Amino acid sequence: MNDTSTLKIFKTDEEWRAQLTPEQYRITRQHGTERAFSSPDFDLSKKGVYHCVCCNRPLYRSQAKFNSGTGWPSFYEPISVDAVTTHHDTSYGMSRTEIRCADCDAHLGHVFPDGPPPTGLRYCMNGVALTFEEE
């Protein structure tokens, strides 16, 4: 992963607020977190692709999704190495790695080193930050 993208999307707060629901805006633009088990997609098991709710960039394949037991959609890898960017997050007195959409900088969630093979990573995403396109 890297901290650069080839197609950056910039919008004003007013434009984001007009496009997103209040909850989507709070999560993606204000770096919020949804309640565990509140996303309708946290246990979705259909085949398809998860996209950024803000810009529709493909982010994760359903084949990389697994049940982490946390109540948030979890994946062991993004769809490509340049789909997301990582950022150091020290909010709430913790040191975590934040995951953002590479195109629009939407806050998606965090990645942790306790996932399954083959990567050993758990991309713990806010379901509200994703849309699902079934195959």
From TrEMBL:
Gene3D superfamilies: Peptide methionine sulfoxide reductase
Domain MsrB: 13-135
Origin: domain of life: Bacteria
Reactions accelerated catalytically: L-methionyl-[protein] + [thioredoxin]-disulfide + H2O = L-methionyl-(R)-S-oxide-[protein] + [thioredoxin]-dithiol
Catalytic-site annotation from UniProt: 124 (nucleophile)
Cofactor: Zn(2+)
Uppermost EC category: oxidoreductase
Short name of one Pfam family: SelR
Binding site for Zn(2+): 52, 55, 101, 104
GO molecular function: peptide-methionine (R)-S-oxide reductase activity
Coiled-coil region: none
EC number(s) reported in the record: 1.8.4.12
Cofactor binding note: Binds 1 zinc ion per subunit. The zinc ion is important for the structural integrity of the protein.
Keywords: Metal-binding, Oxidoreductase, Zinc
Similarity-based family: Belongs to the MsrB Met sulfoxide reductase family.
NCBIfam families linked to this entry: peptide-methionine (R)-S-oxide reductase MsrB
Official protein name in the record: Peptide methionine sulfoxide reductase MsrB
The organism of origin for this protein: Rhizobium herbae
Gene: msrB
